[in-house]
Amino acid sequence: MSVELFGSKKIQYDALLNNIDNIEIKPIEDETGRIERKQAQYKNNSERFLVKKKDFLKQYFEVYYARLQRMRPFVQARAEQKWGDTYEGDETPVLVSKILQVKQGQLCYVTGTLYKEMPLKPNVLREYAKERSITTVKALPSYLSGGDTLILEDETGRLKLVGAKLDINSLVTGIVIAVLGREIAGGDFEVLDWCFGDFAPQPEIQVKGLSPEPVFLALISGMKVGDESLNPLPLEMFLEWIEGHLGSEDEQQMVSRIARLVIVGNSIHQIESSENSSSKFQNKRQILEEQERVSRPIHELDTMLTSICQNMHVDILPGATDPSSYSLPQQPLNPCLLPLSAQYTTFHPVPNPHEFQFNGKIYLGSSGQNIENLARYINRENKLDVMEDTLKWRHIAPTAPDTLACFPFLEDDPFIVDQCPHVYFIGNQPKFETKTVSGSEGQDVKLILVPDFSLTKTILLVNSHTPEIPPFFFNLDITAKDSMEDSSSKNSRKEKKNTPLTLIIKSACIIKTSITQQKKKKKKKKKKYSALIPLL
Question: Is the pLDDT of residue 112 over 70?
Fold first, then answer.
């Protein structure tokens, strides 16, 4: 019996069963030959996230000072635009450039860096004072409590912020803010209103030289290669699909329009060292076995990326579980870790966060550590609201270096948003969500939560021409049903019965490849196969 497998070539069914492990599936070829993958314009804008000189002898106040000096002009300009004339009456607020120049009773506005004092926030010095030793600091899901207070700082002094209109649960440490109010008795500053720098200017989408046909940018995160507790089949299906080996001809034509893949962190599974790994009495064999066990996920990732890089360009961001720097911005994965993939010019290890230009649009994304840390400071319903806040603050990681580790930059703060992106994405989230937000000057930004593939089996395709972001689910549903044999009749044993085997990829469309089996004439019981496709 002849069947057509993924439209590539016809093979005998019995030969398929006998050589299931040796079959090579090739991409569909059209009338002119192999289907060519579409290309897109690309520019890497992540130069500012690369740490050229690591000097940990400096203090972190340099980071806050550089942040305030960079952001004060446009925050102050926004405040003048909002309160420059009058505020609720005939009284005109006075612009005060430094905190020490604030006068008691005078209606004024001043710009500074916010510090949020939170009793539940981890504090190593407090733990040391209590226990006389540095203990492990446990990260709580939320640092919010009734004892939280806000303090405004600049290079000259501090002001404690109070007032009924002050929304403490919506503000975090590290943001540069302008506050309007009066200094009251006791030296506190009663806040009547506040403002941020708002959305940064957004460049126009560059359409010159672009193809009229849309291309796609694929986003995936949380693959966690090497996790033995996960079913490897969905990841194998994704690899076969994105390389063009899986699906109908129409589906492969669509896949050929995926011009680039961005892996948004947590690519490998973090393997904890065994209890005996620190023992002084290990023999050489045990040491080699432990090294092989720990390095196995990296080797598997290297093999997987090698296959993808033969077909398309790949950007890979490090994540919390990847072998990169702990402090933000995380530096690109060392090519020595992925020697096979590093041989290809299509392999691009990039820092976390990562900014780039794809087909005229600016993309900004991270592996999620910054948003996860911010969510502990404020009361927000979902992560999309937190992402929108970072755009209004013009800073994607304001809690660094307070509770989010970062390098001690001396002259600049790379997390400041100088230009508003068109697409802003965060990886390793429990589910896919998206929305569009707008700034006061017409900026439109698509916010995307990239789901964790190990949990959701989902990737995203971002259309270069439209705001559509179809999620693709790689879910395996293989069933084999054997018809009941009629033992009372020998003729019934010779009847032809069908056993459908169906592979389903649930996405914007459902792809089904059905292979119908003709029962063997031999009397011995036929062997059951859990899958009929070599990638399984």
Answer: yes
